[in-house]
Amino acid sequence: MRSEFDFIQNIKKKYGLNKVGDDCAVLPKDAKTDMVITADMLVEDIDFRLDWTTPELIGAKALAISLSDIAAMGAKPVFALISLGLPKAVWETDFNDKFYKGFLTVARHYNVEMIGGDLSRTPDKIVIDSTVIGNIAKGKAILRSGAKPGDSIYVTGELGGASAGLMLLESGCRYSTSNDRKKQLITRQLRPIPQIKTGEQLSALGLATAMIDLSDGVSSDLLHICTMSGVGARIYCENLPYDRNLDELSFNSAQQAGLALNGGEDFELLFTGDEKQISNANLPGITRIGEITANVGIIEVVDQKGVSFLQPKGFRHF
């Protein structure tokens, strides 16, 4: 079965859509500035469930995941639009008010102005579409296509927590009845934090040759960089920064590696660049996990057992 990425690549080639393929579209704004635009969709019972979250958290996440796309370009978010499709039964509750409270709380935190959107009725499920517009200095947007053999591979933050939080929710755990460590894992799933500041720093300093946000998991998102850049990669499992709260679930090292590589929704940044330059920049909260190779399309994983080939096992809608 073809993936979303395969479909996108097909329509790009078929219709000559040369601005499609990164976390955001990059468009000229004026002589000094480019504009970046992204759109994300959340569908009830596919991307969230009402029985394990709140309208406020859904609103916050809807904006946060779009802000993460802006961060992946190294840009500054400026404007947001939000469109909702709601069943009649939901419309007649206070869902709307609480959703916008969560959305606008995040918007104000990042100085993003909501400028519009749309409302419509759906038959039975909630559908959310979030659009964010940002600015970046002309020619400074960090694309997926700039990685080169010899570049090092880095991630921000810790990995695997959001996926573990989803596992907890699916097993029946809820935030209100969990201990502190499980609450932190559930929060990673329900309330992601976009890495806006780090993205802007990487762009301003010219350090990242390619970048993507970790929405689908390292195995899938790194492959996107490799495909767009025409390169391969090598990952060292011992270097992966596992979420410290995973110990609460008694996972062994192989299971933790699986969550970190394939889990997705951590909404951290994965980027490539020159190891010496990045080391000299002393950026906080980043970890070198591997390097870019000339083996086009092949991602090697090095662990205690030796070298294996990483297949994309991150989140797939279809």
Explain this structure to me?
Strands 7-9-6-10-8-11-12 form a 7-stranded mixed beta sheet, sandwiched between helices. It is 34% helix and 26% strand. The model has no long low-confidence stretch (mean pLDDT 93). Helix 2 packs parallel to helix 4 and helix 2 runs parallel beside helix 7 (196-205). The protein is α+β, with helices and mostly antiparallel strands and 318 residues long. The relative contact order is 0.17. It has helices spanning 4-15, 55-72, 88-91, 95-109, 161-170, 180-190, 196-205, 218-229, 253-262, 275-281; strands spanning 25-28, 33-43, 76-86, 113-121, 127-137, 152-156, 210-213, 232-236, 269-273, 286-293, 299-303, 306-309. It contains 10 helices and 12 strands. It is globular and about 55 Å long.
Short description, anyone?
This protein has helices at 4-15, 55-72, 88-91, 95-109, 161-170, 180-190, 196-205, 218-229, 253-262, 275-281; strands spanning 25-28, 33-43, 76-86, 113-121, 127-137, 152-156, 210-213, 232-236, 269-273, 286-293, 299-303, 306-309. It is an alpha+beta fold and 318 residues long.
Task: List strands and helices in order, with pairings.
Layout: H1 4-15, E1 25-28, E2 33-43, H2 55-72, E3 76-86, H3 88-91, H4 95-109, E4 113-121, E5 127-137, E6 152-156, H5 161-170, H6 180-190, H7 196-205, E7 210-213, H8 218-229, E8 232-236, H9 253-262, E9 269-273, H10 275-281, E10 286-293, E11 299-303, E12 306-309
Parallel strand pairs: 3-4, 8-11
Antiparallel strand pairs: 1-2, 2-5, 3-5, 6-9, 6-10, 7-9, 8-10, 11-12
